[in-house]
Amino acid sequence: GTINTILKEQVFRDFDDLRDRGLENPNPRLRDACLVIDSLGPESVGQLIAFFCNGQMMIYRRVFASDLEESSLAKTERRYTWLKRVLRHYDDEYRKIFPSTWEVPRVLCQEFCRVTNEHLTHALQVTPSSQMD
Question: What count of other Cβ atoms lies within 10 Å of the Cβ of residue 87?
Answer without folding.
Answer: 15
